[in-house]
């Protein structure tokens, strides 16, 4: 469904994503894992068509990503990106104006679930409220691919559970959910696949249940094994 | 396209409302001072309205460039560039909204000016005297100006088309600085230099084509060349965005 071939993005001398070959299929909730600077956000932005690769290509259903794929791929950035003059109602209207797969009803239902009022101005939202609002409007789209960058950032435990419920309820055999997070344990409870990136390179792809059955290791253990050395190296 | 234009307008409508509010205030001051024969306030309000007409139209263009810059350099740009619209369409929405706003503001201030001049003349009865003063000033500058509504209308149209072209050139310079020179030292200054060079070249082209023409055809040709240049700037900017823009 979504694949990158030799995908590379360099910012001056720094290579954020380095020749990544990755194939993600529908019917999965996939965790993209790695410490800061591992290239998760840059990879997602290129797949969302927001960022141009230095070389390589991302394909969605066999076609390079671009204007058409944006109609089917819903991307949620980790940073707040709503226009500051908007209320949450305006945000919903905006999505309704531009995305054919958007459901106003689903948006209202998610806002209710997250205890957010439509009349709230985006510039007055706390970081937790903003995170919930971004999730709500992104999942209100009936997209084929959802890419959620750090969806649990700045969110309390109770809200996190509600978000997990919302994410799981969006999953379907013909959909792909890709999420990045530092909260590895949280991801392990909802994802069935994991992709590990390190310094822009793809290190490993695993089927979480198979990994657990074969090695007895959790994803958190695998994360520590892969990145523990790097942290010491970085220190 | 309709939605793109709608949201471009929405991003800048606060400023437009402020310009309208100031214009309304100055107009009321003009009418009251005219009615009460308060010459000083009348003169001040005419000055304020004249400045606002030029300043307002220019600010609408400047704000459009600033909004474009913000859309390319802040996270808010995700809202725009994650929609299933090509860069040609997105930029087209910006150019059309800005063009419509500039021309609407121009038409508004032109109509307001015509109304105020009519009221002033009706009140003072000194139109011929006013024209004579301007004519004698123009003759001193060796200019033969046909001071009639057609002339002022063409002058206003020329100003608006030229300004639209300036704004489109600024879009191009900003896109070059942001996309092609991203992360490079002094990219903003290089963008500014590019803007000045292109503006200078277009001005030279206008002068070369309209050299020796009488005022009226010159104003028309200047406006046509400005619009043609604006179209070229749009196409070049959208092409660069399509190939190189990362937000």
Q: Can you tell me about this structure?
A:
- The complex is a heterodimer of chains A (235) and B (247).
- Chain A has helices at residues 40-47, 88-98, 104-113, 127-139, 157-170, 184-188, 208-215, 219-234, and strands at residues 2-11, 14-24, 28-33, 55-60, 63-64, 73-76, 145-149, 176-180, 193-198, 201-207.
- Chain A is α/β, with parallel strands linked by helices.
- Chain A has one domain: 3-Layer(aba) Sandwich (Rossmann fold), CATH 3.40.50.300.
- In chain A, the strands form 2 sheets. Chain A has a 6-stranded mixed β-sheet, sandwiched between helices.
- In chain A, helix 3 (104-113) runs antiparallel to helix 4.
- The mean pLDDT of chain A is 89.
- With 247 residues, chain B is mainly α.
- Chain B has one domain.
- In chain B, helix 7 runs antiparallel to helix 8 (215-244).
- Chain B is globular, with a radius of gyration of 21 Å.
- The model of chain B has no long low-confidence stretch (mean pLDDT 87).
- Classes of the chains: A alpha/beta (235), B mainly alpha (247).
- At the A-B interface, helix 2 of A face helix 1 and helix 3 of B.
Instruction: Give the topology string of chain B: H per helix, E per strand.
Output: HHHHHHHH
Q: Can you tell me the CATH class of chain A?
A: Alpha Beta
What share of residues are in beta strands of chain A? 25-35%
Mean pLDDT of chain B: 87
Distance between the termini of chain B: 21 Å
In the CATH hierarchy, the architecture of chain A is 3-Layer(aba) Sandwich
- Helix vs. strand class of chain A: alpha/beta
Number of domains of chain B: 1
The coarse overall form of chain B would be globular
Structural class of the secondary elements of chain B?
Answer: mainly alpha
Order of helices and strands of chain A: EEEHEEEHHHEHEHEEHH
In terms of DSSP E residues, the strand content of chain B is: under 5%
On the 0-100 scale, what is the average pLDDT of chain A? 89
Quaternary state reads: heterodimer
- N-to-C terminal Cα separation of chain A, in Å? 38 Å
Report the C-alpha radius of gyration of chain A, rounded: 17 Å
Principal-axis shape of chain A: globular
Rg on CA atoms of chain B, Å: 21 Å
Low-confidence stretches of chain A: none
């Amino acid at each position: 469904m979504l694949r990158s071939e030799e995908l590379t993005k360099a910012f001056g001398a720094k290579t954020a994503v380095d020749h990544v070959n990755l194939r993600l299929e529908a019917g999965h909730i996939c965790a993209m894992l790695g410490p800061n600077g591992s290239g998760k956000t840059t990879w997602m932005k290129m797949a969302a068509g927001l960022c141009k690769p230095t070389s390589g290509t991302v394909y969605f259903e066999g076609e390079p990503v671009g204007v058409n794929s944006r109609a089917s791929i819903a991307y949620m950035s980790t940073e707040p990106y709503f226009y500051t003059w908007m209320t949450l109602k305006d945000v919903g209207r905006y999505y309704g104006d531009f995305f054919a797969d958007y459901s106003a009803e689903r948006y209202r239902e998610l806002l209710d679930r997250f205890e957010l009022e439509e009349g709230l101005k985006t510039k007055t939202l706390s970081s937790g409220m903003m995170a919930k609002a971004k999730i709500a409007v992104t999942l209100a789209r009936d997209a084929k691919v959802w890419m959620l960058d750090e969806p649990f950032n700045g969110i309390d435990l109770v809200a996190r559970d509600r978000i997990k419920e919302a994410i799981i309820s969006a999953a379907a055999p013909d959909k792909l959910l890709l999420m990045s997070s530092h909260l590895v344990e949280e991801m392990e409870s909802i994802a069935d696949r994991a992709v590990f990136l390190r310094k822009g390179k793809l290190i490993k792809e695993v089927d979480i249940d198979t990994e657990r059955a074969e090695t007895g290791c959790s994803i958190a253990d695998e994360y520590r094994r892969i990145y523990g050395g790097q942290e010491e190296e970085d220190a | 396209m309709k939605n793109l234009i709608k949201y471009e307008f929405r991003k800048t409508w606060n400023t437009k409302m402020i310009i309208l509010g100031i214009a309304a205030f100055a107009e009321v001051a003009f009418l009251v001072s005219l009615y009460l024969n308060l010459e000083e306030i009348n003169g001040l309000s005419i000055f304020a309205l004249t400045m606002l007409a030029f300043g307002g139209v220019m600010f609408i263009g400047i704000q459009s460039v600033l909004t474009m810059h913000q859309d390319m350099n802040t996270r808010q740009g995700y809202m725009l560039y994650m929609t299933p619209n090509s860069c040609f369409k997105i930029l087209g929405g910006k150019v059309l909204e800005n063009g419509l706003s500039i021309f609407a503001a121009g038409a508004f201030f032109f109509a307001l000016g015509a109304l105020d001049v009519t009221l002033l003349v009706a009140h003072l009865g000194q139109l011929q005297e006013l024209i004579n003063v301007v004519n004698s000033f123009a003759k001193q500058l060796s200019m033969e100006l046909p001071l009639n509504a057609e002339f002022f209308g063409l002058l206003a149209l020329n100003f608006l088309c030229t300004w639209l072209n300036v704004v489109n050139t600024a879009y191009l310079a900003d896109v070059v600085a942001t996309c092609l020179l991203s992360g490079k030292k002094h990219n903003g200054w290089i963008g500014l230099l590019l803007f000045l060079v292109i503006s200078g070249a277009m001005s030279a082209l206008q002068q070369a084509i309209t050299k020796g023409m009488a005022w009226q055809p010159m104003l028309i040709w200047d406006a046509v060349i400005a619009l043609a240049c604006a179209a070229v700037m749009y196409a070049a900017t959208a092409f660069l965005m399509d190939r190189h823009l990362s937000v």
